Amino acid sequence: MRLSPLIVRQTRLEQKKEVTFLSVLVLERLPEGEIITMFRHLRSLQQVSRRTLSSSARRPLENKVPHKQKLFQEDNGMPVHLKGGTTDALLYRATMALTVFGCGYVLYSLIDAALPKKKN
Q1: For a Cys-Cys bond, which of 2, 55, 84, 115 suits 88, CB 3.0-4.6 Å?
Q2: How far is it, in rounded angstroms, from Cα 45 to Cα 32?
Q3: DSSP output for 15-60
Q4: In sequence order, what are the residues at sequence separation of 6 or more whose Cβ sits closer than 8 angstroms to the Cβ of residue 12?
């Protein structure tokens, strides 16, 4: 089966290089209508990928950095790991609870391993 000049031209335009041997083998197995729709999908995928990687944002976000800098540089006597608010306090308490539980479990395991087991 020969490739039509339209398909070869289309692949050269979209890929900007010569058609490779592998792509020719794959294209030979497909009917001509499916090849054209495949290239249309490829072109639309390229357009979508260009749009998502563009530098302009669709919904610009508010710059929160100056507010956070002001909050964390404020001298109010609080440690820096608690200045974030309630979520920081909860994360700190959860971390401390897991640390205390872990230390207790390690001590229990060491004592259990150090003491001899009673034989029945």
Answers
A1: 84
A2: 20
A3: HSSPPPHHHHHHHHHS-HHHHHHHHHHHHHHHHHHHHHTSSS-SSP
A4: 18, 19
Q: How far apart are CA 25 and CA 23, in angstroms?
A: 5
pTM (2 d.p.): 0.45
Please say whether the beta carbons of 81 and 88 come within 8 A: yes
Residue pair 1/28 in contact by the 8 Å Cβ criterion: yes
pLDDT tens per residue across span 12-37: 555 554 445 445 545 566 666 777 77
% of residues, the chain, pLDDT over 90: 31
Mapped onto helix, strand or coil, the DSSP state of residue 95 is helix
Question: Residue 18 is encoded by which pair of tokens?
Answer: 């010569």
